[in-house]
Design a protein that fits this description.
Elements: H1 2-38, E1 42-49, E2 57-65, E3 71-81, E4 85-91, H2 100-142
Antiparallel strand pairs: 1-2, 2-3, 3-4
């Protein structure tokens, strides 16, 4: 009987620890998302790394989008002392804060490339049309 009681107590303790871990994970994910938004970025995914084995921290894989729509990936760690006290938040790679000029330049070059490709295609179509019209004109002169 005592063994069953011990097993029940152990099971309840494990269940309580799991519930606390899930609640804290949700709290940490919200904290990370808030930090990302404060920097002007958009969080895409924040997922817990349960088996990171970094003592005293909760680790998360983070994907976020910058101001020009480029996605970046990093890892975030939050000091957590037995899920009781929340500590500092650390980024393994800092959130990329591309300056607006560089981002605008990238967008400009991308749009320029698309425009140039479109102009090349249009130019080839016009050349074909000119050749067709010249051959028609030549055939009318011969008649």
């Amino acid at each position: 009987m005592e063994d069953q009681f011990s097993f029940l107590v152990f099971g309840l303790i494990m269940l309580a620890m799991l519930i606390v871990a899930l609640i804290k994970t949700n709290k940490f994910e919200n904290r990370i998302a808030k930090e990302i938004k404060q920097k002007g970025f958009t969080p895409i995914t924040i997922s817990r790394r349960w088996f990171d084995f970094d003592e005293g921290t909760a680790s998360f894989d983070v994907v976020y989008q910058d101001k020009v729509g480029i996605q970046h990936q990093t890892r975030c760690k939050i000091r957590s002392y037995m899920y009781i006290f929340d500590g500092d938040l650390y980024w393994t790679r800092p959130l990329i804060d591309q300056n607006d000029e560089r981002a605008a330049q990238m967008r400009y070059e991308e749009k320029r490339s698309i425009l140039i490709d479109g102009l090349r295609t249009e130019n080839q179509a016009l050349k074909a049309r000119i050749e067709e019209l010249e051959s028609r004109l030549a055939s009318k002169k011969l008649s």
